[in-house]
Amino acid sequence: TGIVIDPATVLSAQEHRVNVKEQSHILVITKPKENKVVYYAGFGWVKSKQFNSQKEWDEYLENFSKRISSPLLVKYN
Questions:
Q1: I need a surface site. Which of 2, 37, 56, 72 has the fewest CB within 10 A?
Q2: pTM, rounded to two decimals
Q3: How far is CA 58 from CA 4, 62, 77, in A?
Q4: What sign results for the dihedral spanned by CA atoms 32, 11, 39, 4?
Q5: Taking the chain (77 residues) in consecutive chunks of 10 residues, what is each chunk's mean pLDDT?
């Protein structure tokens, strides 16, 4: 599980892990800018074979974060 969010909006984060399947949580407390919070959340699943390791997942999140902070702008006439 991962979240991509502007670090300037994060006040705190808490992780609650348990041994019961699908019962762990991450709580992120934010300070909205202009009453808005923009975040992207998702997860990787071993059986999808999209990510073969935790490292690949972490790299994906890092690259995704870089892409949304520097969007591609296309202009045409």
A1: 72
A2: 0.74
A3: 11, 6, 39
A4: positive
A5: 91 92 89 92 86 91 92 87
